[in-house]
Structure formats: C-alpha cells, structure tokens
Amino acid sequence: MISIDAIHLREIQMPLAHPFETSFGRTTGRRILLVELEADGLSAWGECVAGEHPYYSAETIDTAWLIAETELAPKLLEAEIEGGGSCPKLFKQVRGNRMAKAAIENAVWDLEAQIERVPLARLLGGTRKTIPCGVSIGIQDTPEMLMEKIATEVEAGYQRIKLKCKPGWDAKIFEIVRARWPDIRLSCDANSAYRLKDVENIASWDRFNLMMIEQPLWHDDFYFHSMLQKQINTAICLDESIRNRRDALAAIDMESCKIINIKVGRVGGFSEAIAVHNVATERGVPVWCGGMLESGIGRSHNIALSSLEGFSLPGDVSASKRYWAEDIIEPEVTVSKQGEITVPTTPGRGFAVKKDLIERLTVRRQTLRAQARVVA
Predict the structure, then answer these.
(1) Catalytic residue among 75, 263, 321, 354
(2) Residue 133: which residues within 8 A CB-CB, separation 6 or more?
(3) Cβ proximity of 159 and 185 under 8 Å
C-alpha cells in the first residue's frame, strides 16, 4: 500500500518558442499546474493540461488548482492506495474536473512505477519500444509561413503533419499543401469550428486524401458527427467529445468516427485512457495520443501512454524544442530522423526534472501534508 506524505502544487509560466494558433485563438505562453508527490523518500510528478481559459474544455488552470487543493489532494493524503488505478474510485465523489484528477492520478502512477522499479510505460501495459510521431501546426499569418513550417517538419522526419483549420483557412490551404507534398500523411483539426451547414465544404476535402478530420463539429456531439461521417469519405476523428470509455463506445456504435484521439488529461488520467484504448482496440478503431502544449512532464506521460499497442497512428508527441527554448526535464524529448521517440526503459517516467528551472519558473505554490498516522 502507498501512503502520500506531501503534495506540492506549483504554477509555472513558460513562454512558447513560437506562437501557436487554433480556431480558439493564439497562444504565446503557458501557465502550467504541476503536481509533485512525496512518499517513501521518492518524488513523483504530474501535469495538469487545463488552459488559461475555458475554451477547449470547461476547466482552467485556476479551477483545477482549486479542486486539486480543496478536494483531490486531501482525499489522497487521507488514503492508503494500491497505486494509480485506485484513484478513480478515490476521486469518484468529485464530478467532472478530469484534468485536475489526471494531474494527481498520473503522478501516482509515476510513483508506483518508481516503487516497483519498472518503466511507467510497462506499468501501463505498453509494449512498443518506439512510438511514431507527428506534429500539429497552428494557423499561420500567411500560407507562405505555413509552407515553411511544414517543410521544416517534413525534413525533420515527422510521420504525419496535422494542420489546424477554421472557416477561411481550410480547402485552399489543403490544396496548396497537397500540390507541394502529394504523398505525406496529412490531417486537419478544426476544434469544433464548423457546423452542418458547412457539409458541402467539408465533403470537398475528400479530394485531399486526408488521414482524418479531427472534431469538425460541436465539442460535445456524437449525433451530428454521425450524420456528417455518412456524407464524407474521409475519416472523422473525435477528440473533445470523448471523455471516457462510455463515450468511446457510444461514438463507435453510432458510427460518429473512425478514429479516436486520446488525451490523458481530457479523459481524467491513465486509468480511463487505458479503458478508452482497450474498447477502441477491441472494436478495431485506431487511436493516437493528442497533445495539449505540455511541458516535458506531461510529454513524458504521453510517451508512456503511446507505448500501448493500440496507438498505431502517429500522435502529437513531438520534440521539446518545437515548443520550449528550454524544457523542464532532462534529457529533453527528441525525435529521430525516422520520426520516432524511443520509449524510456528506466523506472518511472524516464526523465529527470530540472528542479532549479522549475523553481525559477514558479509563480505560485501550495504544499499539503498528511496528518500523523497512528499505527495500531
């Protein structure tokens, strides 16, 4: 059984190496909530992927901090648990707040892996020694700037290029890209920017041979995505709509999508991410790991999750240098010329944290400690 001695919450602020624009807007820096657990002389880490605003999801870093501090952390400090898989039951009384839950649960999985002296990937059930990598490229100021960025990533070896899109930045852009790179794996991500009135436009994208169209319609929808999928040949991939295993089952049974993006923070932690992976794999639906502009801590968690067998498509787990002038882990995440990341084989996440850098970046902190436990 595992008892947690202390939980440290930290907010760090990290400027992005390059602005990142989606249909939600442009991001130039990240406020990130980090969770550090202390137990048995070990230190384990988790990262909350909630954004600064409630645009991608209802959660924000500030709501996640509140729920972690007042609800989740106290429950964990009072409990003795077997490992990360115990967290969903422990946190069950708290509805929603999946990103806050994931930050703490994933740190427990990291701690469990360290205690068991096994790689986190293996503890999760991963078998892949390397994972295929793609990149997500935000909306640019001009098509010429976009082409330069794509050329850089293709040259770097990434196995899939994903383009953020929105009305007015879609078909003409795809046409330009396909004219130059007719054979690359290409997909797009709308982040819910379209409606059924746009079906004719979306259907016209079939000619671009896209791997998938990610979350084109409402963020919480299965029904209309099912209608859209029946009218287009290109595979729809659902992201925001999939919050748990039940959602994945509903989407698959309704034929709302042919691919599922799994983000460990979006579904509430590794336990639910594995459950979504398993149900999709059982039904022959490929999955891949999405990104949320994570620091190296969240990125290392994504690498571990992507080692599960069902993650057959290149995910958004890319090199640290694409996002940060300096990441908070060492070694930083790197991608080979073949577009792959090697899965760590050392206990835990496989990446050390740069504690000094984290301290310099910290703008807010809170420590919660366990009450003295009485041993019978």
Answers:
(1) 263
(2) 158, 159, 160, 314, 315, 317, 318, 335, 339, 340, 341
(3) yes
- Token pair in block for residue 103: 């930050």
Alpha helices in 95-181 (DSSP H): 98-116, 120-124, 143-156, 171-180
Produce one character per residue of 265-302: b if its CB has 16 or more CB atoms within 10 Å, e if not: bbbbbbbbbbbbbbbbbeeebbbbbbbbbbbbbbbbbb
Selected catalytic residue, list 101, 162, 164, 166: 164
Instruction: Say if CB 5 and CB 370 are below 8 A apart.
Output: yes
Q: What is the pTM of this model?
A: 0.93
Structure-block tokens of residue 301 = 């968690």
CA distances from 112 to 39, 45, 83, 86 (A): 10, 11, 6, 11
230 tagged catalytic: no
Give the pLDDT of residue 374: 44
**How far is residue 65's CA from residue 268's CA, in Å, rounded to a whole number?**
15
Active site residue 321: no
Q: Report how far residue 262's alpha carbon sits from residue 308's, in angstroms, rounded to the nearest whole number.
A: 12
CA dist 188 and 199 (Å) reads 15
What's the CA gap between 158 and 300, in Å, rounded? Answer: 18
Q: Which has the minimum average pLDDT: 23-32, 102-111, 121-130?
A: 23-32
Q: How many CA atoms lie within 13 A of 362 on its CB side?
A: 14
